[in-house]
């Protein structure tokens, strides 16, 4: 059972839910249709998602996280350092067994900064 969403609330609800992570059309449709209902929602949500120009403040462009502990890999890694560029949606996941600040900084530098910024550090 999903609640019917009145017309005057639909776009506002779409904006609130879509702006969480700016997923694509299919994912946005699935997400919203699991929660609400209105007769033209497939078309409306598709059109709104296609028109979305996601912008992220510069301070939120990149996300870095440590995932784990995970089951130990054959190489002895139990963690992943994940990085995503929210502008391009480019993800990276680097396995590691050391989550110290120095090791994570080295992973970010060697696998992200040197590749995408040519090694330049301001």
Describe what you observe in this structure.
The protein has a 3-stranded antiparallel sheet with strand order 1-2-3, covered by helices on one side. Strand 2 and strand 3 form a beta hairpin. The chain has 122 residues and is of the alpha+beta class. The chain is 39% helix and 16% strand. The protein folds into 2 domains: 7-51, no CATH class; 58-116, Nucleotidyltransferase, domain 5, CATH 3.30.420.10. The mean pLDDT is 84. The chain has helices at 7-18, 25-33, 41-51, 101-116, and strands at residues 62-67, 79-85, 90-96. This is RNA-directed DNA polymerase. Residues 6-53 form the Integrase zinc-binding domain. It is an enzyme of class 2 (transferase). Its EC number is 2.7.7.49. InterPro entries: Integrase_H2C2, Retrovirus_Pol_polyprotein.
Task: Write a compact overview of the structure shown.
The chain has 122 residues and is an alpha+beta fold. The chain is built from four helices and three strands. The protein folds into two domains: 45 residues, no CATH class; 59 residues, 2-Layer Sandwich (Nucleotidyltransferase, domain 5), CATH 3.30.420.
Number of strands: 3
Strand order of the largest sheet: 1-2-3
In CATH terms, the superfamily of the largest domain is Ribonuclease H-like superfamily/Ribonuclease H
Termini separation: 54 Å
H/E series: HHHEEEH
Enzyme class: transferase
Domain Integrase zinc-binding: 6-53
Protein name: RNA-directed DNA polymerase
Pfam family, one: Integrase_H2C2
Structure keywords:
2 domains; alpha+beta; 3-stranded antiparallel beta sheet; 3 strands; Retrovirus_Pol_polyprotein; Nucleotidyltransferase, domain 5; 122 residues
